């Protein structure tokens, strides 16, 4: 009788453990965030928030939008995607993945009409096309804004303005035909010159 009682108790504990594990896996906050090149497509198919775009790879877009629009800042939910220009992306990974970056993973993309190619991904060692470190740029916005840089969030100004970022968004080659507005062509030309000068500067620094 005593043996049967022990078996029953053990079975009950096992069932409770399995049920707990199933509940944990089913929770949206604990779902796996699987990112590959197919995860990134036309930036304008995402949801616009002020001058940038957001999405959620786990489908929890309402929670992502709530965080993005919180006037006093908020922690973005797992799976959130934040994108200012077609070639740079932030993705909120599973809790505990990278505490130093607030679980944000940074991506540098190469994009064309056929889709996206991940040129580099990581947490603290990804640099953008101007040589700036993504994590270092977003770090000043850590505490209140969950690493999201906007005007007034403490981040250093980036070398391109909203007109340039808007032109890049409207000319994303993954979206098909560009949807350019007045002034976009000149903004894209200025940006191309800036990138060329930055590349030349880096070449001379590496050379000498």
Overview of the molecule:
This protein is 36% helix and 17% strand. Helix 5 (162-170) crosses helix 6 (184-207). The protein is of the alpha+beta class and 208 residues long. It has helices at residues 2-26, 61-68, 134-138, 142-145, 162-170, 184-207, and strands spanning 47-49, 52-56, 80-85, 88-92, 104-112, 115-122. The model is unreliable at 1-29 (pLDDT under 50). The protein has a six-stranded antiparallel beta sheet. 24% of the residues are buried. It is globular.
The biggest beta sheet, please? 6 strands, antiparallel
- Specify the number of helices: 6
* Total DSSP E strands: 6
> From N to C, what is the helix and strand string?
HEEHEEEEHHHH
- With strands numbered from the N-terminus, the spatial order across the biggest sheet is 1-2-3-4-5-6
Spatial separation of the terminal alpha carbons: 84 Å
Summarize the structure.
Helix content is 36%, strand content 17%.
Question: Which properties best describe this structure?
Answer:
disordered N terminus, six-stranded antiparallel beta sheet, 208 residues, globular, alpha+beta
Write the layout of secondary structure elements.
Blueprint: H1 2-26, E1 47-49, E2 52-56, H2 61-68, E3 80-85, E4 88-92, E5 104-112, E6 115-122, H3 134-138, H4 142-145, H5 162-170, H6 184-207
Antiparallel strand pairs: 1-2, 2-3, 3-4, 4-5, 5-6
């Amino acid at each position: 009788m005593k043996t049967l009682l022990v078996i029953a108790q053990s079975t009950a504990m096992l069932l409770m453990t399995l049920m707990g594990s199933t509940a944990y896996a089913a929770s949206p906050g604990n779902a796996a965030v699987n990112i590959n090149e197919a995860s990134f497509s036309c930036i304008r198919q995402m949801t616009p928030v002020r001058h940038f775009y957001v999405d959620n790879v786990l489908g929890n877009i309402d929670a992502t939008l709530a965080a993005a629009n919180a006037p006093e800042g908020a922690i973005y939910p797992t799976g959130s995607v934040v994108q200012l220009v077609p070639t740079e992306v932030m993705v909120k990974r599973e809790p505990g993945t990278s505490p130093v970056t607030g679980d944000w993973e940074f991506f540098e993309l190469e994009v064309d009409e056929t889709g996206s190619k991940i040129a580099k991904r990581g947490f603290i060692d990804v640099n953008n096309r101007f040589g700036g470190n993504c994590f270092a740029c977003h770090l000043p916005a850590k505490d209140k804004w969950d690493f999201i840089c906007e005007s007034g969030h403490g981040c250093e100004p980036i070398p391109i303005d909203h007109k340039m970022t808007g032109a890049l968004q409207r000319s994303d080659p993954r979206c098909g035909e560009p949807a350019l507005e007045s002034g976009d062509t000149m903004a894209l030309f200025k940006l191309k010159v800036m990138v060329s000068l930055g590349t030349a500067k880096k070449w001379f620094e590496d050379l000498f």
